[in-house]
Design brief:
This protein is an all-alpha fold and 193 residues long. Helix content is 74%, strand content 2%. α2 packs across α9, α4 runs parallel beside α7 and α6 packs antiparallel against α7.
């Protein structure tokens, strides 16, 4: 071991590691960064409409009582909270049959979630088409609770798997941070009128 004037030590082994071949990981292409940052637009659009309009729609347009509308929100929020944990476990340990082989494990669950959100969200924003004109509030409540639960299954699938893609597509720690930042910058710009 040799010492420099500053008192720090430098061994020959450390010098070998520094002069060895660089093991840098490939950089993430700009197109993939851009694609990831706008890949969650459906989820952000839904949350904007969901939070700002849904409760008003349920009480003023559909005529549901405040108690029923509040119950629907509690049920959907509880399902969403539980499903985020379950979806994370399922996506880490299981593969979506058939689709995972061609599309990838996480992307296949993300696709399923996107299809569920896109298919069931419009049903939340329109009057009950299976209910009669004189339907009771319980029938409408069950109808909308079922749609909200299925919608939140898709919501959890798309949201959790989108975030789980970050360590898979980025190989460098600073790119993981950058992908998170790009995602939140896009969300902030979406909120500006």
């Amino acid at each position: 071991m040799t010492y420099s004037r500053s008192g720090s030590s430098f061994s020959a082994d450390q010098g070998k590691h520094r002069s060895g071949p660089s093991r840098s990981k490939p950089r993430l292409p700009i197109f993939q960064k851009f694609s990831f940052s706008v890949g969650h637009v459906l989820n952000d659009t839904v949350v904007g409409a969901w939070i700002s309009y849904m409760l008003i729609f349920q009480t003023k347009v559909l005529g549901l009582s405040h108690r029923t509308a509040g119950f629907l929100w509690i049920v959907s929020s509880t399902v969403d909270a539980a499903l985020c944990i379950v979806v994370g476990y399922i996506c880490d340990n299981y593969k979506f049959p058939l689709l995972a082989r061609y599309y990838g494990k996480r992307k296949s669950f993300h696709l399923l979630g996107t299809v569920l959100v896109a298919g069931f969200f419009p049903l939340l924003m329109m009057p009950c088409f299976v209910c009669g004109e004189e339907s009771s509030e319980w029938v409408m409540g069950i109808y909308y609770a079922t749609i909200m639960i299925v919608h939140n299954i898709g919501w959890a699938l798309s949201q959790v798997t989108h975030l789980a893609l970050i360590p898979e597509i980025s190989k460098r720690p600073n790119e993981m941070v950058e992908l998170h930042a790009l995602r939140w910058v896009r969300i902030l710009f979406a909120l500006i009128p």
